[in-house]
Amino acid sequence: MACKVKVNRHGYLAFRLYWDGNESWEGTAWKETPKNRMKAEARAVLISEHMENGTFDYLKWFPEGNRAEQFKPRASQPVESKPVTVKNYYDAWIEKKKPPFVRRSLEGDYRQAFNKNIVPFMGDLELNRVTVETLEDSIAPRRRTQTDVKDSSKHHRWCITPDVS
């Protein structure tokens, strides 16, 4: 890691920088004179010390430098994001579950199971709001319905079966 003073092809002093795998050539508006050379060498020593200490800040020393854009913080632009629903996620996911990646029948099974068991109960729910409780709550009504059907069929069988006593 170092900073050296060089003279460019136009006769002006320039800093040649080597630090953290980076290289740069930064020009000055100083013509090569003994006084300017001494001033540039003094800065080069300071820059080299910062490089050695790991405190070199390119933008502090060269705010308009050749690589300033590379070191400027990027302004984060607000990204307008629409909440992803369970159905939106499924639509993207099912696109990856098609032949040749899965059997055609498996794709059909996925579609049928999702459209029967998930869309009616939580398709419009935001994906980041799905919890274990949400899943259990969506399963509970179906469990009751299936139990009621089983119980009612047992009841009907009991009613129809003649009493043989």
What does this structure look like?
The chain has 165 residues and is α+β, with helices and mostly antiparallel strands. The chain is 51% helix and 15% strand. The protein is built from seven helices and three strands; from the N terminus they run E-E-E-H-H-H-H-H-H-H. It has helices spanning 34-53, 58-61, 68-71, 86-94, 104-117, 119-122, 132-160; strands spanning 2-7, 12-19, 22-31. A hairpin with a 4-residue loop joins strand 1 (2-7) and strand 2 (12-19). The termini are far apart.
Please name the defining characteristics of this protein:
165 residues; alpha+beta; three-stranded antiparallel beta sheet; 7 helices; 3 strands; rod-shaped; disordered C terminus
Structural class: alpha+beta
Report mean pLDDT, rounded to a whole number.
Answer: 82
Mind describing the biggest β-sheet?
3 strands, antiparallel
Beta-strand content estimate: 5-15%
Q: Distance between termini?
A: 103 Å
Order of helices and strands: EEEHHHHHHH
Number of E-type strands: 3
Helix content: 40-55%
Low-confidence stretches: 151-165
Q: What count of helical segments does DSSP give?
A: 7
Choose one word for the global shape. rod-shaped
Radius of gyration: 36 Å
Across the major sheet, the strand order is 1-2-3
What's a concise summary of this model?
The protein is an alpha+beta fold.
Write the layout of secondary structure elements.
Elements: E1 2-7, E2 12-19, E3 22-31, H1 34-53, H2 58-61, H3 68-71, H4 86-94, H5 104-117, H6 119-122, H7 132-160
